[in-house]
Amino acid sequence: MRSVFIALALCFCSLAMHGQKTRMGQDLPLARTGVNYPIKVHLSAIHYRTEYDGTGFGGIIYTDTVINGKKVELEGISGVSSRLYKLSLGDYQARLLKDPHNRFVDTPLFQVWEIVLPDRTVWRGTVTGIVE
Fold first, then answer.
1. Which DSSP letter does residue 68 get?
2. What is the separation of C-alpha 60 from the centre of its chain, rounded to a whole number of angstroms?
3. Confidence category of residue 103, pLDDT binned at 50, 70, 90
4. How does the average pLDDT of the chain come out, rounded?
5. Which H or E element spans position 2?
6. In this structure, what are the phi and psi dihedrals at residue 90, rounded to the nearest 5 degrees?
7. Are 116 and 31 in contact (CB under 8 A)?
8. Strands, DSSP E only, in the chain?
9. What is the average per-residue pLDDT within 85-112?
């Protein structure tokens, strides 16, 4: 009886270990078919900065981007390993995901944008600065 219990416990533990996800860094999501990316954006500079996020130091990518004629700084959404970003300078298609402001406030701060990269992966960024 004891050996059966030990065998079942080992099987259960091995199944639980197999189901555990290892998150060394997530892949960028792919662009969904049928989703329209109507806005043309231009990435003119890319900056990699190391910042403290409360648990440790991690790298975050910032880009200088022109969206609708406004020069803004986009911060890469946290949680995705920066080594997986396939960003290069140039023109891309994008869409606005979230605008936390009402329609009477004319500021792009904290808007969330999805930018489609050439390999059909999607990079999400939040507007964290405005450049003159």
1. T
2. 10
3. low
4. 77
5. helix 2-19
6. 145, -170
7. yes
8. 39-52, 57-67, 70-76, 90-98, 112-116, 122-131
9. 83
